[in-house]
Amino acid sequence: MSLVDRHTGFVAALREAGLPVSLAEGLDAVRALQVIDLVDRPSLRSAYAATLVKRPAHRVTFDMLFDLWFPSALGGGTASAGADQEPSRSTGPPALDPEVQAIRRELSDLLLTADDAALSQFVRMAVGRFGRAPGQRSWFSSGVLRAMSADTLMAGLLSAVLQGQERGGLAERVARRRFRDRITRFEQLVATEVRRRIAEETGVERTARLVVRPPLERLDFNRATRAELTALRREVYPLARRLATRLTAKHRHGRRGRLDFRRTVRASLSTGGVPLTTHHKPRRPHKPELVILCDASDSVSSFAHFTLLLTFALREQFTKVRAFAFIDSTDEITRFFQPGVDVADAMTRLAREADLVWITGRSNYGHAIEVFADRYADAIGPRTSLLILGDARSNYGDLALPTLKRLVAGARHAYWLNPEPRRDWDTGDSAASAYDAVVPMFECRNLTQLLEFVEEIA
């Protein structure tokens, strides 16, 4: 593959992964390549990063794709002994294999010296030796990590650097963190090497599509891991503030405060007692009230995690936030949103304690809406913004559209966020268009679409 082919493929892969790379930026990268030594791989990486990466959050995806399109080695990647040996056929545990123990001692020495180049060379050897079990055709990180068991080397590493110093003090904590970072680096190198070998055998494009996750702002809420949900929580807070500001501005727009009788009478003295000009008191700043009605069925369980994230963030921006969840019945879940509660723990409590099932435990929007109107009608008022979150799939049941219209009419604003792609609306048992006619519905599967929703309601 020529350098031109690698460049065009790499830029296309970045775009496919969700990174915003324009044609002009691709040309900037080409110009940057003209002034560096192309054999110097760190300089090549830096040149591409400087011209193509806009946000720090995109750097992880960029590095992963760079390592695939511009690999550090080919094949075994080293001429050292053991690099291209057959996979280990020992049937006993690695702890009892003298050869494995010798390799682990070599790893321990590398973690002590922090020689990144030597560690990369060691990783190529270790993946060639333990990355593919006998009879397997693909490569895996698990075999290497299990054989090396880097975490079990921590005690020996600490003993080597502390050398009689008091244990449990600052020196140990610093050393432990330093070695933890080096072990993490080793694990990252193993994952990179495994991806490189898979790409050589199955193709770079296919490997990139399988292993590269989209950047956080384009990550589908339904596919987020627990660590990614934590990162999403940090990103949701500023969006929640913007959403609250937009709703407050719409509440305030075009309305004057109460009549200031004293100022009006005083001003009328200059016109013979005729109040030609009226004066009004400034409106008191306030936060609007918010009611969230969320589908908690299995089909949108991951989206419900996002709902909790949003509710946690919105709670601080509104005077009052009341949250309700439903499957085929509805229950208030505001009590689960206590300060400091972990989102995953709140979801566990919700599934265990909330009364969301009426008969079948399958989505029934019609009955859930009727229950909400019957039990919690007081939650909707003239200062309330109603936010409904769900996929609008009601298993062909009644939709309770008249009841929903009555609820929407009693609220100041009403919006519906749907986690399904718009192309899937009105397919199967989806009643998206019917509900969209009552409540404006927006596709919302990631942070980018949430931002677009916040901007559109301005």
Task: Estimate the helix proportion, in percent.
Answer: 40-55%
User: Spans with pLDDT under 50 lasting ≥5 residues?
Assistant: 79-83
Strand element count: 6
Q: Which strand order do you get reading across the main beta sheet?
A: 3-2-1-4-5-6
Number of domains: 3
Name the CATH homologous superfamily of the largest domain: von Willebrand factor, type A domain
CATH architecture of the largest domain: 3-Layer(aba) Sandwich
Tell me the overall shape: elongated
Continuous helix count? 18
- State the name of the first-level CATH class of the largest domain: Alpha Beta
Helix and strand string, N-terminal first?
HHHHHHHHHHHHEHEEHHEHEHEH
Please outline the major beta sheet.
Answer: 6 strands, mixed
Class by helix and strand content? alpha/beta
* Beta-strand percentage range: 5-15%
Overview of the structural elements:
The two termini are 49 Å apart. The protein has a six-stranded mixed β-sheet with strand order 3-2-1-4-5-6. Helix 1 (3-16) runs antiparallel to helix 4, helix 2 (23-33) packs antiparallel against helix 3 (41-52) and helix 11 crosses helix 13 (301-314). The chain has helices spanning 3-16, 23-33, 41-52, 59-69, 98-113, 116-130, 141-148, 154-162, 170-202, 204-211, 226-252, 261-268, 301-314, 343-353, 365-375, 401-410, 432-436, 447-456; strands at 289-295, 320-326, 330-332, 384-389, 413-418, 441-443. It has 18 helices and six strands. Residues 79-83 have low confidence and may be disordered. The radius of gyration is 30 Å and the shape is elongated. 51% of the residues lie in helices and 7% in strands. The protein folds into three domains: 3-69; 94-212; 226-255 and 287-456, von Willebrand factor, type A domain (Rossmann fold, 3-Layer(aba) Sandwich). The chain is of the alpha/beta class and 458 residues long.
